[in-house]
Each structure stands twice: as C-alpha cells, then as structure tokens.
Amino acid sequence: MDEALDTTLTVNGAQVTRRIPARMNLVDFLRDELGLTGSHVGCEHGVCGACTVRVDGDIVRGCLMLAVQANGRKVDTIEGLSDSGELADLQRAFHEHNALQCGFCTPGMLMAAQDLVAAHPQATRDDIRDHLSGNYCRCTGYHAIIDAVEEVLISRRGGKK
Ligand code: FES
Ligand code: FES
Fold first, then answer.
1. Among residues 70, 28, 58, 61, which one has the least CA distance to residue 135?
2. Predicted model pTM
3. What residue's CA is closest to ligand 1, atom 3?
4. Which ligand is in closest contact with the Cα of 140?
5. Whose CA is nearest to atom 2 of ligand 2?
6. How close is the Cα of 50 to the center of ligand 1, in Å?
7. Could you give the CA distance from residue 142 to residue 136 in angstroms, rounded to a whole number?
8. pLDDT tens-digit profile, the chain (161 residues)
9. 135 within ligand 2 shell (Cβ under 6 A)
10. Which among 153, 91, 100, 93 has a CA at the least distance from the CA of 127?
11. Would the CB of 55 count as within 6 Å of ligand 2?
12. Measured between alpha carbons, how far is 64 from 73 in angstroms, rounded to an integer?
C-alpha cells in the first residue's frame, strides 16, 4: 500500500494541508484533491507540457514532480495567474490571434509563455519558439501562438520591436 504523508504547501496564495499518497504526482493532486482542473494531463511522461505549473517561481512539469515534494513550497496554477491578472495580456493576445483551438495545450502554453515574457523581456521570435518547444500543440501549427507571445513582448517593451 502506498504510504501517505502530511504535506503543507501554498497553492495560489492559500495554504493547504493534506495527507497525500507518497507517489501521487503534483498535477493529479492539484486536479483531484483541490479541483484545480486547469492544469491538464496529456502524456504523463514530461513530454507534452500540458501539466505545466509554477513552483517557487519556476515552471515545472506537474506530472514529473511528486506532490509531497511540494511540501513547504509555493505552487501557482493557471487559475491563480488568471485570477491575479498576471496573464491578462497574454490571454487577450491568444484570443485575438486565434492561438487556441481545442484549448488542451493552452494553460500550459500560457504558463510557459508568461515565464518567458517575465524573465526575458528582450526575447526574440526564435527565443519564443525555443522556450515553447516543450509545450506541444496538436491544433494550431504554432504560428498564431508565436505571434501572440511576440505581440505581448513588444507591448510590454512599450512598442519597441
Ligand atoms: S502531462 Fe506532464 S508533460 Fe505531458
Ligand atoms: S489548441 Fe488544441 S492542442 Fe493546442
């Protein structure tokens, strides 16, 4: 039987404590225990990026991290970033560029895009492609996603290309 461990973490600014099976991964915990279903589960092997969340400021694959490893740490999900307005310009740009179709990849894609635009404001189009290369999209062909992220980068730079 899987051992359970008491775990306390901060999720989207709120502290939560749960007894968690030692082998439960972080994205399953967020979805099944906390009802935060914005983080999606695709490959479950760290390949597709659908499960991307932020832990202590760094983006991670939620399917590759055990929930108990988040003990004492700060986790942000697409719900938290969306509620805080941190993603508002990226969400608007994705909408305006039709950078989503089925939407399955979109939460992870937005988390990864936000990580880029916040940390690398001078990022180029090639940098965007490189940074998002671990987030798979089966629908859009990526061009609209790259256009949307580039627009936000330029806008946050005050219009400088
Ligand atoms: S579900 Fe985690 S990378 Fe695909
Ligand atoms: S919009 Fe469908 S997988 Fe990206």
1. 61
2. 0.96
3. 46
4. 2
5. 102
6. 5
7. 9
8. 579 999 999 999 999 999 999 999 999 999 999 999 999 999 999 999 999 999 999 999 999 999 999 999 999 999 999 999 999 999 999 999 999 999 999 999 999 999 999 999 999 999 999 999 999 999 999 999 999 999 999 999 988 77
9. no
10. 153
11. no
12. 16
Is residue 95 within 6 Å of ligand 2 at its C-beta?
A: no
Q: Which residues pair with 19 in a beta bridge?
A: 6
Tokens (6 digits) for 103: 């939407």
Tokens of 115: 């990580």
Token pair, residue 104, equals: 């399955």
Asked if 7 and 67 touch (Cβ cutoff 8 Å), the reply is yes
Strand order of the β-sheet with 52-55 is 14-21, 4-11, 74-76, 52-55, 58-61
Q: Which ligand is nearest to the CA of 144?
A: 2
